[in-house]
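Late entry, written up from scratch paper. The run itself happened at the end of the previous shift, but nothing got recorded in the book at the time, so transcribing now.
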Amino acid sequence: VGLKSLKNRRDELHLSVSDKGGEFVVMERSAHKELTVNHLTSTGVYSFVAPTTKYRGNVRPIANPTPVSYSRQRKSMVKNLQDQSNSLWKRICETRHLHKNMVDLYTSRNTQLPTMYILLKTHKFDASAISVDTDITQTCKVRPIVSCCGSPTEKLAWICTQILSPLLKFVPSHLKDTHTHLEQLSSLTQDQLKGLKFCTADVTSLYTNINILGCVEDVIALADEHLDELELFGLNLTDVHEMLELVFSNSFFTFDGKIYQQ
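Output as recorded:
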């Protein structure tokens, strides 16, 4: 009966899983949308990209954009980003004399802008403090997810990931997963543990507060230091640097048909 009720209300309910615990989350679509909009407008790490038009040679925002205006804006941006990605990739392949199959394989086609959605942090949700008068949109904490599947820069990002992933073993603070962390802790002797105290720390909006250009420079420097450990697939670090800059400087995504930049 409960599942049938959810199915009958699928147009007004948003169904998802939670951020970490994997619990089944049921929420009204209006509340879910309000939570997402609150996150986009209150954290200070996202910029709304208004549709524009040309008037007498000048580009200016459209005063009252319509759904058609937003649709045209999305199509124009997708084409622009796809053209930029393919132009860079084609130039790199020509410079490095890569095989035509390599060019075709990582040429972007029929792409779309990344989309954003949120997952509720139910592990930070105090159910005992909720009453009928509680505004759920003000008490829930969320984790934003930007899905880049099928995006204009996805293929370039994939290449960079394949090339640079081996560098993780040279980052002392990197932990593959919780199991790795527990293994490292259990390997410590009593003498090593003596007098030590364990603590945890969290950083608010870590990834959106990283200096992207500085981070790219650091990654390339680390890659240059361990160049013998990397498979570059016929490229060099200058090519990787250019691809990383293109990917990270065009962090556009959509929510509710509107474009934002992170």
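The mean pLDDT is 91.
(Scratch paper discarded after transcription.)
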